[in-house]
Amino acid sequence: AQSVSQHNHHVILSEAASLELGCNYSYGGTVNLFWYVQYPGQHLQLLLKYFSGDPLVKGIKGFEAEFIKSKFSFNLRKPSVQWSDTAEYFCAVNTADTGRRALTFGSGTRLQVQP
Amino acid sequence: SQTIHQWPATLVQPVGSPLSLECTVEGTSNPNLYWYRQAAGRGLQLLFYSVGIGQISSEVPQNLSASRPQDRQFILSSKKLLLSDSGFYLCAWKRGPEVNEQFFGPGTRLTVL
Q1: Which of A80, A107, B12, B91 would give a disulfide with B105, using CB separation of 3.0 to 4.6 Å?
Q2: Would you say A105 and A23 are in contact if contact means Cβ atoms under 8 Å apart?
Q3: Do the beta carbons of residue A15 and residue A83 sit within 8 Å?
Q4: What is the DSSP letter of B85?
Q5: B-chain residues within 8 Å CB-CB of A101?
């Protein structure tokens, strides 16, 4: 079965600092990759996704992620964070060849941006 | 547009009491439906999924059960709650088998005392 690892559990940054959150998955077949974000008091919502094509994916609010197949990684980046980026970020994987098509989530990274 | 509702938003129940959490989706038909539990520091764990009315698949052995009595209704239940059932329960949906993006509801925070 697939698994997802997010190595940073809690990250504290100052505004304008650059962000990189790590995500590694374990599965040898075809994968679809996602980053979800949960702002305080809000629904879990999709930040960006990778299905195929260009491994550098751009999402909402200036976020991007790069799929590196050889490293089984899908790290999330943002060049300059804002206070409003304070949230919990979840990496998720779906293996395209499983019937249930559910997502396997990492344990999440809590990002705190200080003004 | 599609929307997903969950209720109640918050629930406090004694150990041994029954549970019923409801999830409904509007604006789509024949969605795949999912129940996840989010525990602090442990991400989201898939509990159940359903690809159609009356079709439920369980991911992990547990004290909970799920039912799908209507196309856009998904219910999470328990006959007797345990302390370990406390957590944040999220319902999600997606369009059919070929689309992989899931949309999440607002969640229900369950505290078992």
Answers
A1: B91
A2: no
A3: yes
A4: G
A5: 32, 94, 97, 100
A106 CB near a chain B CB, below 8 Å?
yes
Does residue A98 have a pLDDT over 60? Answer: no
Residue A72 is encoded by which pair of tokens? 């089984």
Q: How far is A92 from chain B (nearest CA, A)?
A: 9
**Nearest chain A residue to B38, by CA:** A107
* DSSP one-letter code for B27: S
User: What does DSSP assign to residue A7?
Assistant: -
3-class DSSP state of A92: strand
In this structure, are residues B46 and B102 in contact, taking their beta carbons and an 8 Å threshold? no
CB B85 within 8 A of CB B60: no
Cβ atoms < 10 Å from Cβ of B53: 14
Of A105, A34, A106, A45, residue with least CA distance to A76: A34
Q: Which residues of A touch B49 (CB under 8 A)?
A: 100, 102
